[in-house]
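# nightly structure sweep
# worker-07 picked up a monomer target from the shared queue
# config: single-sequence mode, recycle default, output format = structure tokens
# input follows
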Amino acid sequence: MLNPIHLRTLVEVVQLGSFAGAANRLGYTASAVSQQMTALEQFVGVPLFERTARSAHPTEAARAMARAAAPVFADLDTILEAARTAHDDTSGEVSVVLYASLARATLARVYADPAFQQSGVRLRITVQDPSAAVRSLAAGDAPDIAFVYRYAGSGLAWPPAVHQVNLGPDPYRLIAPAAWQLDSALRERSPAEVLSELPWALHHPGTSDANVIEGVFRQAGVRARAMTHSDSFDVVLDLVAAGAASAFVPSVVARLAPPGVDTFDVPGLALSRDVHALVSPSAPGPSTRVVLAAVQRALEPDTNEPCEERAAD
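# output follows
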């Protein structure tokens, strides 16, 4: 039987012109895409690619299959929509995937949300990086909702069958020990000069987040000196609260900072990631809407808490 996942991968390869481009969009490795295309060729029984040592070009047979795939996927979407409609009123459980910082910032608020409590909806939770969540979606092993983030211009993409709900931007903020009194230093000297003198808690080198932040620092003229490397924001917050380091973190993380930590917006040091909810076509409609609304409310600033944020002049 023809594997629809392999067929969708073929469509992306033909559209983007390379295994690497399709892998980037679908959340696979280039090797996984190559293996899928080999399996598809074996099933079809005709060559789909003209391979050389460094490239693979789609044959006319591959292009014909890609053109014919559009109505196939439309029919599959119709089938999935029918299943979702039938499932809407029969399920009170929603499976969700969240990345660690969003889970840390929102789950307690979601469970304390009166509307969520009254709904009776049950959550089945997995904490997973966005790239891994997208790979699960592409493989057809989809949760009802996958919460992901991506930076502007990044290559992270997801299957077109999922419904994308935009939850808004998550801008980065500078956090530092209050005892350092950075507000006065940032008013008197250039931000690049001040920030280059600080010890930093940074992501591990080579990770996607580290690469993005390194580019922002470079553009702002900041030479960040790493005191430690950690991908755990809980560890980073503890280090900043202890007076050991500064950090550049998303707003959902900065708002979890304990007493003794100042938060700044620094001119020239601008970065934001966009937060999305990717809803499976088979997700239970009413229960899914309850969860989405609760997460959106959890992301709103708490107006009952004193605001400790400061803007550097």
